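step 3/5: co-fold with 8-OXO-2'-deoxyguanosine-5'-triphosphate
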Amino acid sequence: MTELHDPTAPPPFAPLRTDRLTLRPLRAEDAADLHRLVNDWEVAKMLARVPFPYPRELADEWIASTRALIAEGRAWHLAIVGREQEKEVLLGCVGLTLQAERRQAELGYWVGRKSWGQGIGPEAAGRLARWALANLGIEKLVASALLENPRSQALLRRIGFRQLGEAAQDFLSRGGAMPVLTFEMTRADLPAEPMPAPPPPAAAEPAAEGKRIVLVSAVALIDPDGRVLLARRPEGKPLAGLWEFPGGKVHPGETPEAALIRELKEELAIDVAESCLAPFAFASHGYANFHLLMPLYLCRRWEGAVTPQEGQALAWVRPQKLADYPMPPADKPLVALLRDFL
Ligand SMILES: Nc1nc2c([nH]c(=O)n2[C@H]2C[C@H](O)[C@@H](COP(=O)(O)OP(=O)(O)OP(=O)(O)O)O2)c(=O)[nH]1
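step 4/5: write tokens
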């Protein structure tokens, strides 16, 4: 069975793609291009941790350090790479530094002058921000932009950051403290996604407050050691990065049990008999644009090995440890009930 998953353990990193870009670890052979792009006063003067002039050998040292940090799961400073006539070209860098004790990561970026005005920054930074919230076990991202850099502030707002206030930050390139605006972003700030996606639920009557009721069936699978299976909602889904009970929306004409049996096959490749699903409790929770009604079943018997089918992380969690895993707000009362019951 799946081994215990530490909710804060960073995942192995695979390059991230967008329509036009690849975000990948820097390589030793990027050093000359990196140096050419960042050793430019118009770029360096906006960056807190970049000296100017930028010594050529610093590019080699910095690239080596970024590779070590990725391997240790502490920071992801990545090359923003585009394509020009079938050739890879370095356009800039985007980076994340984990501040695990505060359950947050700091986002930074720069784009070489030649590629300004093409939306490269928001495309790269937005992609890395979504990846981070879905995969790093953090609650929020933080960032800052110089007071005199409205383009960078606009970029942060465009990808979902909210302004918090003003602060002073040391800038190597300026030789002292400079005024900056500080920003943060949580999952709730991710650009609006349809929530939840079709198909329409079985119980589609508007609730009293005019919200649609969405019926979702979920299960606490319990292994012989009394551990409960949680799955991490993958990037791209609403509430990505939060841990949940396996399950999904009840389709029109389906019973909650049939929906669950279908979802468990689709998501985890296991077969469950209806007689093994014991009704346990339910969640009734008002989200911003729908009302969730979610029966939770208990199940101790299934056939097949639990295997994630959608790339989602899984964790077998002792009941006392459930609270260590950030879950959707609707699940909070269920967790308390489970802990008392198991
Ligand atoms: N499965 C599950 N969903 C939960 C839990 N808590 C909670 O708020 N939800 C919400 C999140 C979603 O808005 C909704 C489930 O919808 P979903 O989109 O994940 O369901 P699905 O698997 O049918 O998704 P899809 O095929 O439409 O992508 O219920 C939970 O513990 N388990």
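step 5/5: annotate
Residues 194-202 have pLDDT under 50 and may be disordered.
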